[in-house]
User: What shape does this take?
Amino acid sequence: MSKKSLLVTAVPTLAVSVALAASGPTTVAAQAASTASASCATSKLPLHTRGQLTVATDSPAYPPYFEGNKPSNGKGFESSVAYAVAKQLGFGPSKVKWVVEPFDNSYAPGPKSFDFDINEISITAARAKAVSFSTPYYTNPQGIIVAKSSPLAHARSLKAFRDATIGVQVGTTSLAAVQQKIKPSKQIQVYNTSADVVEAFKIHHVDAIVTDYATALYLTSAELSKTTIAGQFTAPGGDNWGLLLKKGSALTPCVDRALATLRSNGTLTRLTKRWMSSKVAVPVLK
Assistant: This one.
């Protein structure tokens, strides 16, 4: 908002505040809640395309976040979260349109072709300079994938990986986590896509992969045979995932309100337990 806009609205806002204060705290709270509700009414939402909620994610869309590489089927953690948010905003499945947005492009400055993007996008101060984020819908540790036959499979601390060649995807929290927590002596191998990271591991260009823990669970169970998660660790500052919106989007408070409801009614907990839990005990490394 510009300084001019602030000056124009300052007097009316003050008048409303005085009037509400005169009517008592109960009325103030009730009218404030009513105003918030009205501003998030489905018909009043500031949408990319009128009458529909446009949601973005990358392609391919991997489990456990999506199933069958089809975000629109409502299966997988992030697909389920997206539709749950959409429902809170007043949109049924038929009114949700999915579009493809490459991971690196999602948090680049500029206009967006979606209302929000859901793609395991970590909330960081650097990214928040160019886009807006919702409150977190998930907090994820990092996982280290190695061959079961590797001596690193029995590592007891992050120091064990100092001399390993580690592969990560560009632009991810995993890269910063490796740099700051593991501090390898060898150059980190950075790849454009997660598929490139996996391929590098298969052809033995790297000794280990670091990715978010949930993806590590999927890769070791479905993509990379004879591998294991040697350990998990927390990224610097934590790794909180948020829905990404264009910078200053007026839709952000309504998305936050939807997520608050999903937290309070247990929906996020249920979806996390269904799609993101594991029976495998993985040590926490420090």
User: Anything to note?
Assistant: The chain has two domains: 44-139+240-276, 142-233.
